[in-house]
Design brief:
170 residues; mainly alpha
Length: 170
């Protein structure tokens, strides 16, 4: 990488890859991050796909596999964020690989929306509504539980990023 701080900079989601200057800038400064996200995303997506195939929902049945995937993925995101932001001094590619890549590929809120549409089209509006609200509430609660339990397990009361700990220890 040309810029040693590039791993700290957010990747701009508004980059127009049709503009050569923007395209080359992204790949020059963020190539390793994009590669980590891509590899992680492939792993997470394959895991999600496998679970979806192993536990398919019925035509009007509650999509338990997708619900469980989103709940577990959200819980793991909460755990991971405490570990990489507050506990570890992790390699700069850990969060893009595990968080955005694996867990981003594993969780599937696009399939969640397709499942809601499938249920409504099949005449199961009540199930669709329960799934719509239940998934959102469960995912948010799972992230919170992941954060809280991990902070308790590592002995932290509140979020204290690594940079704050370093200043306190200096």
């Amino acid at each position: 990488m040309d810029d040693p701080r590039a791993h700290q900079l957010p990747i701009d989601s508004d980059v127009d890859l049709h503009v050569e200057r923007q395209r080359t800038e992204v790949f020059r400064t963020h190539g390793a991050v994009l590669a980590a996200i891509s590899v992680g995303g492939a792993v997470g997506s394959l895991a999600r796909y496998g679970l979806g195939v192993a536990f398919p929902p019925g035509r009007t049945g509650f999509p338990w596999a997708t619900f469980g995937i989103n709940a577990v993925g959200s819980l793991l995101i909460g755990i991971l964020m405490v570990l990489v932001v507050e506990v570890w001094e992790a390699h700069p590619l850990i969060r893009p690989f595990l968080g955005v890549g694996i867990l981003g590929g594993f969780t599937t809120f696009s399939t969640y929306v397709v499942d809601v549409q499938r249920l409504v089209n099949a005449g199961a509006a009540g199930t669709a509504l329960a799934y719509l609200a239940g998934t959102l509430a469960t995912a948010l609660a799972a992230v919170y539980v992941g954060l809280a339990v991990t902070r308790t397990a590592v002995g932290r009361r509140a979020a204290r990023p690594v940079a704050d700990r370093e200043r306190a220890n200096a």
